[in-house]
Amino acid sequence: MYGNYPAVFWPDHPCAHKNGLIRIHRAIAYEKYGNAILNLSIHHKDENVFNWAEDNIELVSNSEHIYKHRNRLKTRVCSICNKKFTRGAIKIDKNYYCSSVCSQKSQERISWPPTATLRNKVALVGYCALGRELSVSNNAVKKRIRNHA
Protein backbone atom coordinates (compact mmCIF):
# COMPACT_ATOMS: atom_id res chain seq x y z
CA MET A 1 0.00 0.00 0.00
CA TYR A 2 1.16 3.49 -0.80
CA GLY A 3 -1.09 5.92 1.00
CA ASN A 4 -4.60 4.52 0.56
CA TYR A 5 -3.73 2.86 -2.74
CA PRO A 6 -2.47 -0.67 -3.43
CA ALA A 7 1.08 -0.56 -4.79
CA VAL A 8 3.83 -2.84 -6.03
CA PHE A 9 7.61 -2.54 -5.92
CA TRP A 10 8.76 -1.70 -9.46
CA PRO A 11 11.71 0.73 -9.20
CA ASP A 12 12.44 0.82 -12.98
CA HIS A 13 8.94 1.93 -13.96
CA PRO A 14 8.66 5.56 -15.23
CA CYS A 15 5.83 6.25 -12.74
CA ALA A 16 7.61 4.78 -9.72
CA HIS A 17 8.15 6.94 -6.65
CA LYS A 18 11.59 7.44 -5.13
CA ASN A 19 10.99 4.46 -2.84
CA GLY A 20 10.41 2.21 -5.89
CA LEU A 21 6.67 1.77 -5.33
CA ILE A 22 4.10 2.36 -8.05
CA ARG A 23 0.38 2.49 -7.43
CA ILE A 24 -1.27 -0.30 -9.37
CA HIS A 25 -3.85 1.92 -11.07
CA ARG A 26 -1.03 4.12 -12.42
CA ALA A 27 0.79 1.10 -13.86
CA ILE A 28 -2.42 -0.03 -15.60
CA ALA A 29 -3.08 3.46 -16.93
CA TYR A 30 0.52 3.70 -18.17
CA GLU A 31 0.04 0.51 -20.20
CA LYS A 32 -3.09 2.02 -21.76
CA TYR A 33 -2.08 5.69 -22.26
CA GLY A 34 1.73 5.69 -22.14
CA ASN A 35 3.68 8.81 -21.09
CA ALA A 36 0.49 10.92 -21.25
CA ILE A 37 -0.25 9.99 -17.63
CA LEU A 38 2.95 11.45 -16.18
CA ASN A 39 1.46 14.92 -15.55
CA LEU A 40 -2.18 13.90 -15.13
CA SER A 41 -4.31 12.42 -12.39
CA ILE A 42 -6.07 9.10 -12.66
CA HIS A 43 -9.69 9.03 -11.52
CA HIS A 44 -11.56 5.87 -10.51
CA LYS A 45 -15.05 6.46 -11.92
CA ASP A 46 -16.72 4.38 -9.20
CA GLU A 47 -14.33 5.79 -6.53
CA ASN A 48 -13.25 2.26 -5.57
CA VAL A 49 -9.42 2.29 -5.48
CA PHE A 50 -9.38 -1.51 -5.70
CA ASN A 51 -11.27 -1.57 -9.02
CA TRP A 52 -8.49 -1.46 -11.62
CA ALA A 53 -10.64 -2.26 -14.66
CA GLU A 54 -9.57 -0.17 -17.66
CA ASP A 55 -13.11 1.15 -18.15
CA ASN A 56 -13.12 2.39 -14.53
CA ILE A 57 -9.94 4.45 -14.90
CA GLU A 58 -9.87 7.80 -16.68
CA LEU A 59 -7.17 10.44 -17.16
CA VAL A 60 -8.08 13.91 -15.90
CA SER A 61 -6.21 17.11 -15.11
CA ASN A 62 -5.37 17.72 -11.46
CA SER A 63 -7.94 20.54 -11.20
CA GLU A 64 -10.65 18.40 -12.81
CA HIS A 65 -9.84 15.56 -10.41
CA ILE A 66 -10.20 17.86 -7.40
CA TYR A 67 -13.49 19.19 -8.82
CA LYS A 68 -14.88 15.66 -9.27
CA HIS A 69 -14.16 14.75 -5.64
CA ARG A 70 -15.13 18.01 -3.95
CA ASN A 71 -18.42 18.51 -5.74
CA ARG A 72 -19.98 15.12 -5.22
CA LEU A 73 -23.02 15.37 -3.01
CA LYS A 74 -23.17 13.25 0.10
CA THR A 75 -26.46 12.61 1.79
CA ARG A 76 -26.21 13.43 5.47
CA VAL A 77 -28.65 12.96 8.34
CA CYS A 78 -29.17 15.78 10.83
CA SER A 79 -28.12 14.72 14.34
CA ILE A 80 -31.03 16.63 15.92
CA CYS A 81 -34.10 16.26 13.67
CA ASN A 82 -32.98 13.22 11.57
CA LYS A 83 -33.79 15.11 8.35
CA LYS A 84 -31.86 13.90 5.27
CA PHE A 85 -30.07 16.61 3.29
CA THR A 86 -27.27 17.03 0.75
CA ARG A 87 -26.32 20.72 0.87
CA GLY A 88 -25.67 23.28 3.56
CA ALA A 89 -24.27 20.92 6.16
CA ILE A 90 -23.00 22.40 9.40
CA LYS A 91 -20.40 20.13 10.95
CA ILE A 92 -19.51 20.38 14.64
CA ASP A 93 -17.17 17.72 15.97
CA LYS A 94 -18.36 14.57 14.15
CA ASN A 95 -22.02 15.57 13.88
CA TYR A 96 -23.84 17.12 10.91
CA TYR A 97 -26.78 19.51 11.22
CA CYS A 98 -29.24 20.59 8.54
CA SER A 99 -29.54 24.17 9.79
CA SER A 100 -28.18 26.70 12.25
CA VAL A 101 -31.27 26.10 14.43
CA CYS A 102 -30.38 22.42 14.85
CA SER A 103 -26.70 23.18 15.44
CA GLN A 104 -27.65 25.67 18.17
CA LYS A 105 -29.92 23.11 19.79
CA SER A 106 -26.99 20.72 19.94
CA GLN A 107 -24.91 23.30 21.79
CA GLU A 108 -27.43 23.83 24.59
CA ARG A 109 -25.98 22.52 27.81
CA ILE A 110 -29.07 22.78 30.00
CA SER A 111 -32.69 21.85 29.62
CA TRP A 112 -34.53 25.16 29.70
CA PRO A 113 -38.00 25.44 31.26
CA PRO A 114 -40.75 26.97 29.10
CA THR A 115 -40.47 30.73 28.47
CA ALA A 116 -43.64 31.47 30.44
CA THR A 117 -42.15 29.72 33.49
CA LEU A 118 -38.93 31.72 33.10
CA ARG A 119 -40.88 35.01 33.01
CA ASN A 120 -42.83 34.07 36.15
CA LYS A 121 -39.67 33.13 38.06
CA VAL A 122 -37.89 36.31 36.97
CA ALA A 123 -40.82 38.32 38.32
CA LEU A 124 -40.50 36.48 41.66
CA VAL A 125 -36.73 36.18 42.23
CA GLY A 126 -35.01 38.27 39.52
CA TYR A 127 -32.56 37.45 36.74
CA CYS A 128 -29.49 36.88 38.94
CA ALA A 129 -31.15 34.42 41.33
CA LEU A 130 -32.76 32.51 38.46
CA GLY A 131 -29.41 32.37 36.65
CA ARG A 132 -27.76 30.90 39.75
CA GLU A 133 -30.56 28.36 40.08
CA LEU A 134 -30.10 27.24 36.45
CA SER A 135 -26.26 27.49 36.57
CA VAL A 136 -26.16 30.12 33.82
CA SER A 137 -25.53 33.85 33.76
CA ASN A 138 -28.31 36.37 34.29
CA ASN A 139 -27.61 37.55 30.73
CA ALA A 140 -28.29 34.02 29.41
CA VAL A 141 -31.68 34.11 31.11
CA LYS A 142 -32.44 37.52 29.55
CA LYS A 143 -31.43 36.30 26.09
CA ARG A 144 -33.46 33.10 26.43
CA ILE A 145 -36.60 35.04 27.33
CA ARG A 146 -36.02 37.61 24.58
CA ASN A 147 -35.20 35.09 21.80
CA HIS A 148 -37.84 32.48 22.64
CA ALA A 149 -40.86 34.72 23.13
Task: Give the secondary structure arrangement, pairings included.
Layout: E1 7-9, E2 21-23, H1 24-33, E3 41-44, E4 57-60, H2 62-70, E5 76-77, E6 84-85, E7 90-92, E8 95-97, H3 100-107, H4 115-125, H5 127-134, H6 138-147
Antiparallel strand pairs: 1-2, 3-4, 5-6, 7-8
Notable features of this structure?
two-stranded antiparallel sheet; two-stranded antiparallel ribbon; 6 helices
Compact description:
The protein has about 150 residues and is an alpha+beta fold.
Architecture overview:
38% of the residues lie in helices and 16% in strands. With 149 residues, it is of the alpha+beta class. The protein has a two-stranded antiparallel sheet. Strands 3-4 form a two-stranded antiparallel sheet. Strands 5-6 form a two-stranded antiparallel sheet. Strand 7 (90-92) and strand 8 (95-97) form a beta hairpin. The chain is rod-shaped, with a radius of gyration of 28 Å. The model has no long low-confidence stretch (mean pLDDT 83).
